[in-house]
Amino acid sequence: MLELSNEYEVTDALKALPLWVRENEKIQREFSASDFASAIGFVNAVAILAEKLDHHPDILIYGWNKVRITLSTHSSGGLTALDFNLAKRIEALNFF
Known about the structure:
Elements: H1 7-15, E1 21-23, E2 26-32, H2 36-53, E3 58-62, E4 66-71, H3 81-92
Antiparallel strand pairs: 1-2, 2-4, 3-4
């Protein structure tokens, strides 16, 4: 089990991820694609990253072009460095 991030670590990590919002023991971000196919392509790219890290986000596809990514380390019961690492990698996709 990974060690939970403390409040200072969470606050500091979110400074580098300004579009991500903390929701209790999770972080999430909303993405808007230009069309449905782009939204699905983005989800597939996130899936590849998640598999490489063996860390799987909650992914919600809604509307015809919106994607919500929610990260938390379920086995640890909250936020860990792995969540922030995956969020940074998702940002680096520069998909939208």
